[in-house]
Design goal:
Length: about 675
């Protein structure tokens, strides 16, 4: 149980101690007050001022009054020169106040009027002033200034002229600290609660991109419908690389704007065969480094966007994309965009940032259905828009390899990564079903890994490295083909496949060249194609050895029987763009065919001969090699006529010297050819 009398006694004791402490504090306060009243000199002077105190108070009052009167009557034009010289020393530019200067200090919103203000430009900017303002009226909120914040109550600019120059070295005329690295975070301005611009002009000369712009800038703060439309408008025209350029930016009125209320804007930029449209809001007004918007892009070629944005993209067919654009300092994010590129859909997310002073672009892209012609355009083929859809060509009639040059100077100004996947591919001649691409760009070196194409049967996988640190890039590629069906390469005849089997191949090349075609024309390395086993129409197998009797008879009779292919190996050494056959063998159960010759990758021409030897006795055997010549796109298949003529001459001599029966010996092949060592051939080719 609780001892209630004891608890009450303790509480009483604490109360008594507290009351004693309060009494002591009150006594100390009273003693201090009595001392001040009786003995403190300052208090005594205030309560009972003497002659010295009265004289000091009068002098102080007179000085304050004189200072205030001085401020009221002071002509601020007297200090225009010193103010201009101080501003010039601070900015490193010539700042001049050529007109009247009027300052009004006695208000909770002090204001100033400046006439004839000019800010000079750097010496390299053609002697142009960066800014000239006929009249500037500004007022600030004094209470905010006491709190350490600058808040502009009103700002009125009359006939401002701003001239911005970017030279070929990237120097910007408006940059007051050119040696400081650009962090890309955007400008942060003080809050402006009322903005008015009368007859403003903005002129831009961007020499690196061949861009000029002359824009009219106005801002109105309409207080009633009769005042007209209010808000901010920038409307300009110019050129980019000789083509027309237009820019229009609009925003809402500034009146009663708040830091925590988004400021809506729209922007439309058209030029370089591209158009960008945005509608969004600056999330924290006057912090231009943060905004979000719905962005729409459309144009002839995504690569043209480099001139407008400075972002390197590959060549593409015409495109149209829509998505959400956000900016957070130096980081731009184009997220969840969707649209069309050529005849293919494209979606994904693209992020642009500045890392260690360099622009970095990272993209994750995908297509539900890819048109392979659109991908060919990305790899350097020339897109052509037809009524039936976009197609891609090499750019040269009759050529296969794209010849569009790689813009190495653009690869050197940024880093980044790319991941792309096509879930399906529209019907195409190669029967490609899926595509995966990966890229990594760092300090001018582009690595492609993976480069993967999945066919209906088989796949092609590889990597590539492009060193673009010099004007002429140096590339190395390594691609492997596995399980690709021969019937997709060689067309069927009379409803039956000419040849069947799975092909394995490898292309390992390196060399200088600004395009795929130029790389091939100057490359070195190796090319190989192997068919470990398969089947061939018997008629064509016989004709490999120019066995006229059996081959023609089977063709004319419609025979569709097949002969086994024990192996087929084509192995080429490539030097200076010319592939020379080291091994060229087709071994069937009836014929062993061996060949020689070259493939000129630069001219895209074939010059091959295949000489067959039968493994079984054959009548009417023509001793002449098969020739494969002409362009890669449409090769010609024939017979070496000179060899046939030689055989005919021998037969004629036998008929004259011996007998007609002996002449038949010239067309008889005893069939002594042996099987090739397929294991050794395949191993050497790989």
């Amino acid at each position: 149980m609780i001892d209630r009398p004891g608890a009450k006694s303790a509480i009483d004791s604490l109360r008594q101690k507290a009351e004693a402490a309060l009494r002591r504090a009150a006594e100390g306060r009273d003693a201090l007050y009595a001392y001040v009243v009786a003995r403190d000199p300052l208090w005594l002077a205030v309560r009972r001022p003497g002659r010295p105190e009265l004289i000091a108070a009068a002098i102080t009052f007179a000085l304050v009054a004189a200072f205030l009167l001085f401020l009221v009557l002071f002509d601020w034009n007297w200090v225009r020169g010193p103010i201009g010289r101080a501003a010039s020393a601070s900015t490193g530019r010539e700042v001049a106040l050529k007109g009247d200067l009027d300052v009004r200090l006695f208000s909770w919103t002090p204001s100033a009027t400046v006439r004839g203000l000019s800010v000079g430009g750097p010496t390299w900017a053609s002697g142009r002033n960066t800014a000239e303002i006929e009249r500037l009226d500004v007022s600030i909120r004094l209470r905010r200034l006491f709190l350490g914040q600058i808040e502009v109550a009103s700002l009125t600019l009359t006939r401002p002229r701003v001239h911005l120059v970017v030279d070929s070295q990237g120097r910007r005329s408006w940059d007051l600290e050119p040696d400081r690295p650009d962090d890309g975070r955007g400008a942060r301005l003080p809050v402006i609660q009322q903005l008015v611009i009368h007859d403003g002009r903005l002129m831009l000369n961007e020499q690196r991109r061949g861009m000029t712009l002359d824009a009219v800038v106005t801002a109105r703060e309409a207080r009633s419908p009769q005042d007209g439309e209010s808000g901010f408008v920038l409307d300009g025209k110019g050129t980019m690389n000789g083509e027309p350029l237009t820019l229009r930016v609009t925003g809402g009125p500034f009146i009663n704007i708040r830091r925590d209320r988004p400021y809506a804007f729209t922007a439309e930029l058209a030029g370089a065969s591209s158009r960008l449209s945005a509608a969004g809001a600056v999330t924290r007004p006057f912090d231009l480094g943060r905004f979000n918007a719905r962005l729409e892009l459309q144009g002839r070629d995504l690569a043209d966007l480099y001139l407008l944005t400075g972002i390197t993209t590959p060549n593409t067919p015409p495109y149209r994309l829509r998505g959400s654009l956000t900016r957070d300092g130096a980081r731009f994010r184009f997220a969840d965009f969707r649209g069309q590129v050529g005849s293919s859909d494209l979606s994904g997310t693209l992020e642009v940032n500045r890392v260690e002073g360099r622009r970095r672009v990272d993209a994750e892209l995908a297509s539900r259905a890819l048109d392979i012609d659109d991908l060919a355009a990305v790899l350097g083929a020339r897109p052509q828009v037809t009524t039936a859809g976009t197609v891609a060509t090499s750019g040269q009639p009759g050529k296969l390899l794209p010849d569009a040059p790689l813009r190495t100077e653009r690869l050197r100004v940024m880093d980044g990564t790319l991941a792309y996947r096509a879930a399906s591919v529209k019907a195409n001649a190669f029967d490609i079903r899926q595509v995966r691409l990966g890229a990594d760009l760092k300090d001018g070196v582009l690595k492609l890994d993976p480069v993967s194409f999945a066919f209906n049967r088989g796949e092609l996988n590889g990597t590539a490295r492009i060193d673009a640190t010099k004007d002429t890039p140096y590339s190395a590629v390594d691609f492997r083909l596995s399980g690709y069906p021969l019937e997709s390469i060689i067309p069927a005849r009379d409803g039956a496949p000419t040849v069947t089997g799975r092909a394995l191949g490898r292309a390992k090349l390196e060399g200088p060249g600004a395009s795929i075609h130029e790389l091939a024309a100057r490359s070195k390395g190796s090319l190989s194609l192997v068919v470990p086993q398969g089947r061939m129409r018997s008629a064509f197998a016989e004709l490999l050895g120019i066995n006229v009797g059996a081959g023609v008879r089977k063709l004319l009779s419609g025979d569709q029987s097949a002969s086994p292919i024990r192996c087929a190996v084509a192995d080429f050494k490539v030097s200076d763009g010319v592939a020379t056959a080291r091994t060229l063998v087709i071994d069937t159960d009836v014929v062993l065919a061996q060949g020689s010759g070259t493939i000129d990758l630069g001219a895209e021409k074939l010059n091959l001969k295949i000489d067959g030897e039968t493994k079984k006795p054959r009548l009417l055997r023509v001793w002449a090699p098969i020739t494969i010549t002409g362009p890669l796109a449409s090769p010609d298949l024939g017979v070496d006529v000179s060899a046939v003529a030689t055989q005919g001459g021998v037969v004629g001599a036998l008929a004259t010297l011996v007998s007609p029966i002996a002449a038949l010996l010239g067309f008889i092949d005893p069939g002594l050819a042996e099987d090739a060592d397929c294991g050794s051939l395949i191993a050497s080719a790989r």
